Amino acid sequence: MSESAKLSFKGQEYEFPVITGTENESAIDIAKLRASSGLITLDPGYKNTGATKSAITFLDGEEGILRYRGYRIEDLAEKSNFLEVSYLLIYGELPTQAQYESFSKEITHHTLVHEDIKKILEGFPSNAHPMGVLSSMICALTAFYPDSLNPNRTEEEVNLSIIRLIAKMPTFAAWAYKNEMGHPVNYPDNSLDYCSNFLKMMFALPAEKYDVDPIVSAALDKLLILHADHEQNCSTSTVRIVGSSQSSIYASISAGINALWGPLHGGANQSVIEMLEAIKADGGDAKKYLDKAKDKNDPFRLMGFGHRVYKNFDPRAKIIKKAADDVLEKLGVNDPVLDIAKELEYAALNDQYFIDRQLYPNVDFYSGIIYRALGIPTDMFTVMFALGRLPGWIAQWKEMRENGEPIGRPRQVYTGSNERDYVSMNKR
Ligand code: MLT
């Protein structure tokens, strides 16, 4: 028997269907709310509002659960790899050996980008933030592949755009870094796996041989898995709403990159390291800043702690914390900034003030630490987040298009002036 929810307003009763998902989450379907009652709902930040039904990622903020297509993030981080997880998110099932090999081969075949894109890159000053460079180059793909402007092409044509995105994103990301460093760009090396190829494009220099450290490549692959999707977060919702107007996948993903750029979203990992470096520059007294964080009159806030959705712990943070400890030990990293991070982490996990407020270290806290240990510069951290999130954005865009979802167009409650007559300039 289907459930329903009743609303009474100004003496009228209204009844709306309740739908329940496969993990027993229920939602009131208010598609007919305004037509039947004249009412709309108001929910700034949409914290209580479902924008869609999705079969891609399930997370439970209370229980600290995260699954991609039903598979536990813990299992995927331990047993899978980023390309296999990308396939799972986008096509819905773990690939067979043949499917995986074909997918990997297609991606390898498309890593190169049009030489004219280098001219776009060269137009950016070296102080351009790599996120702005990345979103610009992704959007520029609409110029080099104009057929992609129509999102309603055949499944094969849409899939080619998907392959091109996954294949070229590491190239663009590495080139954005090289532009910042004033170094010549490196072309992809198709003999390498996805993460090793990215690291070589990032760090290889013409003057010397570059060998990818397998420890670094493996840690990066795990980080990308952990960031691959997270249901209807800000940047994914941006990708969906831009795609809902039938903008191309490249324009939609470019918009998602720009949403992720914000310090309240993907930029949080960059803000964590900037916070740690500021504490170090101020003498490195972690306790001083822990006390400042507790002082409600002090504007200082701890970055990388707590989460809007996870109320007890971020399952990705547990996995990434272990990876951070392993990588720092294996690489023999000795960094005072990371020592400060350890002091803040210990306090957050043991000080009742932070425990009571669920201010535990989140995925951004640890990802910033690992990226720093891997030698990735701070303003590239959010680019790394985008690299990981790409398959999730693609999967969500694809699901939205395949489900024929309508254009996103929220309503509002108007609070401005009531009707008034125009006043000529000489009477104001
Ligand atoms: C994410 O992974 O997108 C972040 O944790 C933010 C979120 O889910 O709201």
What does this structure look like?
There is one protein chain. The chain is mostly helical and 428 residues long. It has two domains: 4-50, Rubrerythrin, domain 2; 59-406, Citrate Synthase, domain 1 (Orthogonal Bundle). It has helices at 33-37, 73-79, 82-91, 97-109, 115-122, 130-144, 155-181, 194-203, 214-226, 234-244, 249-260, 268-281, 286-294, 315-331, 336-350, 352-356, 363-373, 381-402; strands at 3-9, 12-20, 26-28, 57-60, 65-68, 71-72. Strand 4 and strand 5 (65-68) form a beta hairpin. Helix 6 runs antiparallel to helix 7 and helix 7 packs antiparallel against helix 18. The model has no long low-confidence stretch (mean pLDDT 94). The structure holds D-malate.
CATH class term of the largest domain: Mainly Alpha
Instruction: Please work out how many helical segments DSSP would assign.
Output: 18
The third-level CATH topology of the largest domain is Citrate Synthase, domain 1
What is the averaged pLDDT score?
94
Sketch the major β-sheet.
3 strands, antiparallel
Helix percent band:
40-55%
Strand content: 5-15%
How far do the termini sit from each other? 63 Å
Q: Which ions, cofactors or small ligands are bound in this entry?
A: D-malate
Query: Largest beta sheet: what is the strand line-up?
Result: 1-2-3
Radius of gyration: 24 Å
- Low-pLDDT parts are none
CATH superfamily of the largest domain: Citrate Synthase, domain 1
CATH architecture of the largest domain: Orthogonal Bundle
